[in-house]
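On clarity, I found the account of how folds are encoded harder to follow than it need be. An entry of this sort, consisting of the sequence and the corresponding backbone structure tokens, reads as follows:
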Amino acid sequence: MKITQPLTITSRLLPGICIDGVRLSVDYACEKQPDSTQYVFYVDYNGKEFCCTGATPSDAGLQKGLELLLDYLGVFEVAVQYCRETAAMSEDFKLFPEELADWAVKNSMEIYDLQCRLITETLIEE
């Protein structure tokens, strides 16, 4: 596997990135599903970890998985902003721990920029 900066091998020995002290990693899920690629996402922050899953409707690689994780973080950030502006709760606010809300807002542009790079460049070659 070849990984291009700004991506790196994380402390979990998986491809990912560190953004403002939060490490994001992606791996394939153990179980295979027909016609989709299943992923496990790890978010390590402040000595804690959060794990969630996601899937793409095709035979995709780890780069697509990382792109999906960043997409989820973007949706989370929009939900955080919505909740703060309207005082109404959004279901998307529950995608990640509330402790990551300020981090997601603060780093939304870096998340978006990296997401654009993952769409336009090959940063993980398997």
Summary: Strands lie at 2-3, 8-9, 15-19, 22-28, 37-45, 48-56, 124-125. Residues 79 and 90 are 6 Å apart (CA to CA). The first strand starts at residue 2 and ends at 3. The mean pLDDT is 94.
